[in-house]
Amino acid sequence: AVERTLSIIKPDAVAKNVIGKIYSRFEMNGLKIVAARMTHLSRIEAEGFYAVHKERPFFKDLVDFMISGPVMIQVLEGEGAIAKNRDLMGATDPKKAAPGTIRADFAESIDANAVHGSDAPETAAVEIAYYFPALNIYSR
Ligand code: CMP
């Protein structure tokens, strides 16, 4: 089915100047960018986005990292977009990410891991709504 997923290019990858290289991977693999926005998240915004991880030991470091610089946030649309984006990203820990994936090629550590992608249809819907009101999504 055609799906939408939320993608974030994290501060490490924005600082490395590889937004275009990552966008090319999306486009070459049938994922269309239907909304996009560069922003420097506030602590409140980052904590709200990652609220499901609130009790995890890495929560504070994760939020600190996500507000350390600007991020590029996009909605990707395409056949099986959620799983396809996760395949393109590779494992959360770049040391475990398969060769040729975004995290293997651009990420440094489990915190500075270049990209975020929604993990399921339910989380994709919540995450897209968090950053993009429907009127700012330009499908087909
Ligand atoms: P992301 O897909 O953005 O979702 C939560 C983030 O927490 C994850 O990528 C990692 O960057 C970060 N993180 C740090 N430590 C861990 C961990 N042990 N397990 C999962 N995610 C972690």
From TrEMBL:
Enzyme class: transferase
PROSITE patterns: NDPK (PS00469), NDPK_LIKE (PS51374)
Domain Nucleoside diphosphate kinase-like: 2-139
Any GO CC annotation of this UniProt entry: cytoplasm
CDD domains in alphabetical order: NDPk_I (cd04413)
Organism superkingdom: Bacteria
Positions of the catalytic residues: 116
Name of this protein: Nucleoside diphosphate kinase
Record organism: Georgfuchsia toluolica
